[in-house]
Design brief:
single chain; 388 residues; Rossmann fold; Dna Ligase, domain 1; D-amino Acid Aminotransferase, Chain A, domain 1; seven-stranded mixed β-sheet; five-stranded parallel β-sheet; 13 helices; globular; disordered N terminus
Length: 388
Amino acid sequence: MVYAEKYSAMNRLIVFGNSNYNTLGVVRCMFDKQVAYFLLLVSESRFDTVLLSKGVKEYKRVDSEAQGVSFLISRKEAWRNAVILPTSDKAENALDAHFNKLAGYYRFPNAGKQGAVGSLMGKQLQVKLAEESGLHVPMTVRYKKGQRLPEGIIYPCIVKPQNSITGKKEILHKCQTKDEVLQAVTASRHAEDFLIQQYIDKEYEVLLIGCRLPDGRTWLPGAFQKKRWYLKGGDASYGIITTQTGKLFPHLSEVYAFLKRLDYYGPFSLEFGMMDGVPYFYEINLRNDGTSHYFHKAGIFVPYIYYRANTNTLKIDDLTIPETSYTFIDEFGDLVNMKAIGLSFRRWFHDLRHASAYKYFCRGDIKPFLALAPHRLAAALFHMFKSN
């Protein structure tokens, strides 16, 4: 552990999260932008690949988000006015749950009062506010484990946790019948509360990325058009990154209205399924999105904009959005599509060679990639060749 008591609030940035690709992307971004930071890493492991990133100089490991918050409270006077950037739902939720103890000392993503972000993470409230803002939403009902299934469910449907804190995308299920819904709910180990949502037979998905600034402005610089996925319900493994957001998604006025209703300030991402030219709202993530580093090639640095805005150093030029588009690929996860959708090796290799953004690979910071490669490649090959 490298924990420097001499860490100065003049550095004014604390990255708070676990050893995932979101955290890795943020620390790389801040190193590139020459922003000094302290990494508050939630991990019980003795080996975390994010610590191999060349920009990580000062950090502290904690066993849980609650322990991380306790550490922040213990340092609140010395680190007054420092900016905290959470890189996971659990880290954001922990900050939100202790808003009253932290807000007078730190600046972090929030919705104005303790518990407000936690409420907004509830998918049912998101659906309600999205509908009120004019966004299209699939027919949705709420269901708690053990209750009788409500009437009116449209099949096929998607079953997902009501709150992203208690569930993971990996337990998102497509169900054709009532029995399949009950099986999906019973199989969940983490969630008790679910949304059952009409399945949208999408042509593709769109993720919008941005940041709500302290002065109330919304910066919405880019979009990710998702084309392929790593396993069902998993992360996108291939797609198009573009800063021409309005051309890809011509319903931005409703998005701005929705964000105003939320009254949340900080980094975010919104997810939509596109069917017959209509965008159907899926959810909003109230934290820095794990895809934010896919936009670095375009000159879009959401974590950096958030940091600058909260240290009163933001310049008009920082918000300039250059027009560009290019492809992204998960250099390991997309391999599964050779079996899943019959993608040829020739096509996969072509897409890999011509991509401009990657999930893990960074030419200027290669060590985390090399450490992850054996595990990620083995996982992809396992899913490619396992029997159905």
